[in-house]
Structure formats: C-alpha cells, structure tokens
Amino acid sequence: MNPPRQLNGLVWAGLLGTLILGGYLVANLVELYRGDPGYNWTHRDMRLALPETRDALELYIGGELLQKHLERKGLTATGPDGTPYPVVEQDIRVRLNYWAERRADLAVRAIPGALLTGISLACLALGLYQVRQQRKKS
C-alpha cells in the first residue's frame, strides 16, 4: 500500500491565504459595490451650519447662491403659528452624504487584499504544479 501523498507548503499557504484574504477582499468589494449610500449621512443630531459646508456644498435658488439671498434677507419662512419671518444663516442646517469618501476609502482598503489574494493564488497554483510534477516522477 502506498503512503498518502502530502501537499507541500505552497499549497497550504495558497489555500489558507486565498480563503482568508479572498474572503476579506470579497467583503470589501461587496460593500464597495452594494453598500447603502443612504447610510452615510451626517448624523441628524450633528447637522452642520451653512458656513461649515462651503467646501462641499453650493445651493442655488433661482440661479443665485443661497448666501446671496440670505445677505439680502430675500428668503422668508413661516413659523409654527403662521407668521412669516426672514430666514437667516443660523436657521439653516445641512446634512451631507459621505458615500463618495466612504467608497474611496473602501477601494483603497481593497488594494492590499487584492494584492495578497493574488499572491496566495500564485502560491496555490505553483504548489499544485509542484505536486503534479512530483506525482509524475513517482
């Protein structure tokens, strides 16, 4: 009876690396491509004042920047009792969606996982090739 043939270290390293690192890569890619953009808003209790969003948001009303309307006191709102009042900058709060930044972060985090998964697959392929060559010799 022939002794059982063992797999070499490259096969084991390739298998483990592919399963572990490949799983990490797949998880990152699933979140990257199927993630919920609606989940990445500024928290409701942490809404930003209008000046804090100048680098991320420009809001136009009738083709004119919102801040211009506010400077002229050209906007009015109606209070709960029905009385109109001029809208001032302090009345406006903004929630931003950070999905684009989140996706960029996920894409960057997927790069090392992809590299290491590729190396693991190469180890697996090389190890299987060596096992096949050894079996041909015996």
Terminal Cα separation, in Å?
14 Å
Secondary-structure-derived class: mainly alpha
Strand proportion, as a percent range, falls in 5-15%
Strand order in the largest sheet:
1-6
How many domains? The number is 2
- Share of helix, binned: 40-55%
Strand/helix succession: HEEEHEEEH
Average pLDDT for all residues = 88
What kind of oligomer do you see? single chain
Number of strands: 6
Largest sheet: 2 strands, antiparallel
Molecular structure report:
- With 138 residues, this protein is mainly α.
- The chain has 2 domains: 1-38 and 99-138; 42-96, no CATH class.
- It is built from 3 helices and 6 strands; from the N terminus they run αβββαβββα.
- Strands 1-6 form a two-stranded antiparallel ribbon.
- Strand 2 (60-61) and strand 3 form a beta hairpin.
- Helix 1 runs antiparallel to helix 3.
- The chain is rod-shaped.
